[in-house]
Task: structure prediction
Amino acid sequence: MDQILNTTDYCDLPSRGELYAETNPFYKKDRIPFHDMTAREEDIMANKTLLKNGVAFDRVLQSVSETPNADINDLTISDKQALLMRVRINSYGPEYKISLKCPECGLRQNLVVNLQESLDNALKFVKPIDETLVFYKDCELARISHDVFSFVTRHNKHKIVFRVGHGADEHTMFRMEEKKNRERSKGVVPKEDIDRGAVLDTFKMFIISINGIEEKGKLAQMIEGLHTRDTYHIREVFREVSCQFKMMTTFTCLNEENCGYEHEVEVPLNANFFRPDFE
Ligand SMILES: [Zn+2]
Result:
């Protein structure tokens, strides 16, 4: 044998392939093939420049993907996230060590997250697109194309047309995040403003029009003026239509002073996510 063959496994796609154009290799694929990480992919993760530019994860996913002629960035953000989780679990096991600060008492503590459990739990709540369309019938949710949808907000009855985010959008968001981090480190923008900015950035990126208005400047103004009830509604519909899921884990504070804090928290992705921890 002159070649080591890695067995192929499959990753279930949260979108079930329902958010792709017919020309997209992921069209109507409810699961996609990939192989476990090898020395080749480990080498990618060891490349500091790739890590710094946020493209290391992409290169790894592209390298393990076994869908012919497919660009990993054609996946929706949620499908790509699911693949990332599956590759991590297959390659290094489901256990992921993180360190979190208790939101109540501030004590930093280590915990081990079971990524498989978190992923299974999260995906249970993702509905197929057809069901989502029925669920949001009251706000006239309609499909315009494979990844463009429209609906009417409950509070001010704005007609929103939006698209689902893809891998390429993540790069734009990553660059925006980097810029904010630089500003944050310089102390020019207060933290609250940065967090608020994240919602606006997402809206500006994915909302195509409001009440038929597409012109960028006008649209941006409208977005900024949206009522909070409507922004809440928009985020909910975005989340459901995009088949978004959140990796959560239970955090129980170990503070001996009996802090007692116990809550579901989102699993943070850090630099150790793609690092073996075999010992
Ligand atoms: Zn605590």
